[in-house]
Amino acid sequence: MSIFGKIMSAIFGTKADAAPAGGGPASGPATAPSGGSSSAPAAPAQSVDVAPILDKAVKAKGEKLEWRTSIVDLMKALDIDSSFAARKELAKELGYTGDSNDSASMNIWLHKQVMTQLAANGGKLPPDVKW
Q1: In the chain, how long is the greatest CA-to-CA distance?
Q2: What one-character-per-residue DSSP string does the chain give?
Q3: According to the model, what pLDDT value does residue 30 have?
Q4: Which of 2, 45, 65, 131 shows the smallest number of beta carbons within 10 Å?
Q5: Beta bridge partners of 123
Q6: Cβ-based neighbour number of residue 118 at 10 Å
Q7: Rounded to an integer, what distance in angstroms lies between the CA atom of residue 110 and that of residue 75?
Q8: pLDDT digit string, tens, across residues 5-48
Q9: Cα distances (Å, whole numbers) of residue 57 to 18, 19, 53, 81, 115
Q10: What is the pLDDT of residues 84-128, one digit of tens each?
Q11: Average of pLDDT values for 57-66?
Q12: What is the Cβ-side half-sphere exposure of residue 120, based on CA atoms within 13 angstroms?
C-alpha cells in the first residue's frame, strides 16, 4: 500500500482503499488527482471527523505531536514512517514538482496536500488546521 493509502486507511478505515493515491498533482480545491487507470471514487456517504481520530492517536503516542501543522508529526501519530525518504516517496505519489531536497518547503506542501485530500474524501477538519 502506498504511504498516502496508509494515511487514508488510518483515518477512514478500509473504505479508504478506493481513495485517490497519486496519478498527478493534487492541486486545487478538493479534487481527486486526474489520470491513472481507476475512476475517481464517489463522494463518501458521510463525513469523518478527523480531529478526534488524530488526537487519540497522538495521545496514544504519549508525546507532543502537532499533526495540525506538521506532516512529520501526522505520520508519527499514525505509526507511518516519517523519514525523509518516506516523505520524498509521499511527495512523489502526490505529484510534488518542487525541490525534494528542500525538506521545509516539501513538508509544508505535503501537509497541505494531505489535508486537502482528507477534506476531499469526506474528512471534517477543525478550523485550526493549517491547510
Answers
A1: 41
A2: --HHHHHHHHHHGGGGGGS---SS---STT-PPP-SSSPPPPPPSS-EEHHHHHHHHHHHHTS---TTT-HHHHHHHTT---SHHHHHHHHHHTT--S-TT-HHHHHHHHHHHHHHHHHHTTEE--TTS--
A3: 37
A4: 45
A5: 48
A6: 25
A7: 11
A8: 999 999 998 654 444 444 444 333 333 343 333 334 444 557 99
A9: 23, 21, 6, 15, 17
A10: 999 999 999 999 999 999 999 999 999 999 999 999 999 999 998
A11: 95
A12: 22
Quote the CA–CA distance of 120 and 22 in Å, as a whole number.
Answer: 14
User: Cβ contacts of residue 13 below 8 Å, gap of 6+?
Assistant: none
In this structure, what C-alpha cell is assigned to residue 76? 508519527
**What pLDDT, on the 0 to 100 scale, is given for residue 98?**
97
d(CA 13, CA 38): 20
Grid coordinates 505520520 are at which residue? 75
Hey, what amino acid is at 102?
Answer: D
- Within 13 Å of residue 122, how many CA atoms lie on the same side as its CB? 18
